[in-house]
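Please go through the protein record below and explain what the tokens say about the fold. Record follows.
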Amino acid sequence: MYGDFWKITSPNTIILNDTSMCSGQPVQLNAGTGFTQYLWSPSIGLNSSTGNIVSANPQVTTTYTLIATNGAGCGDTAQMTLTVLNSPTVIATGDTNLCITIPVQLNASGATNYQWIPPTGLSASNISNPIANTISNITYTVTGSDSTGCFASDEVTINILVPPVSSLPDTTIFCNQSIQLYTGVTTSGFNFHWEPAYGLNDSTSVSPIASPDVNTNYTLVIETADGCQVKYSMTVNVDAANIYIPNAFSPNGDDRNDIYNIIYSCGFALEYFRIYNRWGQMVWQTYDIDEGWDGNFVEVPCGIGVYTYVIAGRNSYNNEGVMMNGNVTLVR
């Protein structure tokens, strides 16, 4: 179908070959270099009626006549028929605006074979009806061809009106701690707010700082100017802080390390805190987590040595029981 359509076999002879082209897809007519002047007729569909090489793009089958001459007055005349084959009419459907990333059915018709580009996000790129699953705006071009080799193209555009959140997993913090709720979403062109606003430093920020005191399910609401809205949810679980028990204290009246107590921040409900001497006798107990042992037993100072503590309580956030025991050294 393509190539040189005119060849000079002698300085005074042009050989003509009929050929064909796909509608709307220009071909080059080449008359060689055996003459100095060339005149093509009719000029319909040609980019020029003179010259040994012209581009032809007629809408219908056309017979062209070429008159070629040289400076000596010698010339030749030839004809050729350029048959115009109908190119397929490829129609693609699937243009859509999405508020959230979901699979979209694309369809193309009017041809025999199809090729979609780019193949990004497509279930297949060489069928008429692939499934597109894209996370960003994209335009697909489908080119269809028929049995003649002629082809045509069409486009399909998918717009994601609200960007997907890159990551919004559940997380756990200790009480009195904070965490940033990172979403990976750019703020350009969108409005954001979180529900509920409880525990957040800014409920209209795309990535606020969360400091809840209890387990909280947060929902990020993303809105576009045209009212498209999507929601993403996550849970911030709050756990009791670690409890720290010193391994020694010195109740000597110097106001430094005189009281042996539980060091904690929050989230721990004490049932009892008991101290035993080395013979297993309980020398002190309390049910108040903020109260500590002063090193006395019935208002009498206990001797220097190693004592055993036992702590029982519950995690205030999950109601799980907590039991701890160990040794503490009393020095004076």
User: Anything to note?
Assistant: DSSP finds no helices and 29 strands in the chain.
